[in-house]
Amino acid sequence: MSRPKPELPDPAALRALLAGGQLRVRATPGARTETITLEGDRVLVKVRAKATDGKANAAVEKLVARALGVPVSHCRIVRGETSREKCLRVDG
């Protein structure tokens, strides 16, 4: 059985939360499903990957890039590599 597709918000709504090319998110590694949820001005990102060896960080970058419709190389964590609160720089 294949995994269900991640639940992603409208790209325009997510882009509206970009401040100076940066997006603040709260990450939850080891989740059952992959989702991005918008709660007011907060972005909650849940990924299946465990928080070991940067796997969850890579999954957060990949999921946010997919939601915004940009290449993964244009979405990088600039702050919070070891924290659940992260700041991503989004180019494009």
Blueprint (SSEs and pairs):
Elements: H1 11-15, E1 22-28, E2 35-39, E3 42-46, H2 55-68, E4 75-79, E5 85-90
Parallel strand pairs: 1-3
Antiparallel strand pairs: 1-5, 2-3, 4-5
Structure, described:
The protein has helices spanning 11-15, 55-68, and strands spanning 22-28, 35-39, 42-46, 75-79, 85-90. The radius of gyration is 12 Å and the shape is globular. It has a single domain, classed as 2-Layer Sandwich (Conserved Hypothetical Protein Mth637, Chain: A). The termini are far apart. Strands 2-3-1-5-4 form a five-stranded mixed β-sheet, covered by helices on one side. With 92 residues, the chain is of the alpha+beta class.
What is this structure, in a nutshell?
With 92 residues, this protein is α+β, with helices and mostly antiparallel strands. It has helices at residues 11-15, 55-68; strands at 22-28, 35-39, 42-46, 75-79, 85-90. The mean pLDDT is 94.
Name the features.
92 residues; alpha+beta; Conserved Hypothetical Protein Mth637, Chain: A; five-stranded mixed sheet; 2 helices
Q: Can you give the mean pLDDT?
A: 94
The ordered H/E elements are HEEEHEE
Number of strands: 5
CATH H-level superfamily title: YggU-like
Structural class: alpha+beta
Counted by DSSP, the helix tally is 2
Order of the strands making up the biggest sheet: 2-3-1-5-4
Provide the CATH topology.
Conserved Hypothetical Protein Mth637, Chain: A
> How many discrete structural domains?
1
Gap between N and C termini: 35 Å
Low-confidence stretches: none
Sheet bearing the most strands, described?
5 strands, mixed
Rg (CA only): 12 Å
Residues in helices, as a percent range:
10-25%
Which percent band covers the strand fraction? 25-35%
| CATH hierarchy class name | Alpha Beta
CATH architecture classification:
2-Layer Sandwich
Shape field: globular
Family: Belongs to the UPF0235 family.
InterPro entries: DUF167 (IPR003746), YggU-like_sf (IPR036591)
Protein name: UPF0235 protein DVR09_02845
Pfam families: DUF167
